[in-house]
Amino acid sequence: MAVCGHGGRRDPDSLAAASRRLARFAPRESLAALTLPRPPDRARVIRNPVAMNWAQSFSSRKTGVGADPREVRKLGNLNRTRVVQLVFGELSGRWRLKSKLLISLAWVVVFLAVSGPLFAHHGTANYDTTKLTTVTGTVTDFQFVNPHTLIFFDVKNDKGDVEHWQAEATSPNHLIRNGWTRDMLKPGDQVTVSGNRAKNGSFVLRFGKMVLANGQEVKEGGGDN
Amino acid sequence: MHGFWSFLQGLPWATAVRESPWMYPFVQLIHFSGLSLWLGTNVAVDLRLLGVGKKTQTASELSDELFAWNWIGFAIVVLGGFLLFSASALMYVANPAFRIKLTMLIPLALAWHIAVQMKTRAWGQLPDTPAVAKLAGLIELLLWLSVVTAAVEIPTH
After folding, report:
1. Which of residues 51-110 of B touch A (CB under 8 A)?
2. For B78-128, how does the pLDDT look when each residue is reduced to its tens digit (9 = 90+)?
3. What pTM, to 2 d.p., does this model score?
4. Which domain holds residue B55?
5. Which residue of A has its CA nearest to B22?
6. CA B27 to chain centre
7. A211: part of which helix (H) or strand (E)?
8. Which chain B residue has the Cα nearest residue A120?
9. Counting CB atoms within 10 angstroms of each CB, which of A157, B12, B63, B142 has the fewest?
10. A197: alpha, beta or left? (left if phi > 0; alpha if psi -120 to 50)
């Protein structure tokens, strides 16, 4: 049977050659690892002859010296494991696992920190939520649409000029469940709208509540909008 | 061009997405599910290139295994995105965050992703990836992060 039939077993000649190569870099005890044949791991070897299996990579890390000649070469070049050893001293297996866990957690924290702005609620960033503005006007358009419902209305200011206001409410889905209907506002209706005005000073409100011509008070509804 | 966008958002299905109480969240569901698949598989390979993940599987193997899911996710995210866009096309084309996202960030990130995916076969042969692969993976992560950030900024502009 051909020697290469099962990838896990090593050809004795190449094994000897590897031992000689290894001897130049590695302390004597690690040679034992080479002479112990690993059980064959067919699928892995066929798919990727270069990759080490988990047990091998773990044992090579534990001893600090690779059972694989490539690992030894890397150690010669002072790889990351070796640098960690030099800085923190030799860690026991348990501490090594703990430090790995800590490093993983650190990664999670870094990503959460970077993605922090993504978690901010997007609806109110542009509105001054510290003040409530109330204006009365005549409805010009009511768009009961996704993602946000829009109420357009004209307001006459103190000087007699007409200001075109717009109020942004939440989605129709949410509003329907709280009793709103598509035709509850029509052009020409009188309406008094309260809400948080846009920070840039434009005539735009984040809808808080409104009072219809018949005196009925309408809010977006319970819960967090 | 204005005519085309208003024609697009006047189409029956676009109007339905805009005005129906349930279709819009459903289309959002399509877009975000596809996004999870697309970005999830992208990020998994990028992190593996950076050296995060199990070392028993090379970056090349991981990339090959996720390849189909990666592009299925892309198809879903584009479908959902197109439906969301067409529902309010006029609003979106006027939105600076959306314009930056669609005309600059997405083409850039997509081209980078395809290049990285092709190069990963060469970079990912050994358990440890070369420095250039780590840099490429990091840049791709940042590119997709910027795409998502632009998307999140759309409602505030």
Report:
1. 52, 54-58, 60-61, 87-88
2. 999 999 999 999 999 999 999 999 999 999 999 999 999 999 999 988 888
3. 0.65
4. 2-156
5. A173
6. 16
7. strand A204-212
8. B152
9. B12
10. beta
Which chain B residues are Cβ-neighbours of A44 within 8 angstroms? Answer: 56
Give the residue from B9, B56, B60, B156 with the most A CB atoms within 10 Å of its CB, the best one to mutate.
B56
β-partners of residue A191 are A137, A212
Residue type, B116: V
Give Cα B56 distance to the centre of its chain: 28
Chain B CB within 8 Å of residue A173 CB: yes
Task: Identify any residues that bridge with A166 across adjacent strands, giving them in sequence order.
Answer: A152, A204
In contact, A125 and A143? CB cutoff 8 Å? no
CATH number of A133-219: 2.40.50.1010
Structural tokens at position B62: 């991981």
Nearest to B60 by CA among B137, B135, B139: B137
Mutate to test the interface with A, among B28, B58, B156 (most CBs of A within 10 A): B156
A85-96: average pLDDT? 60
B46 vs A29, more confident: B46
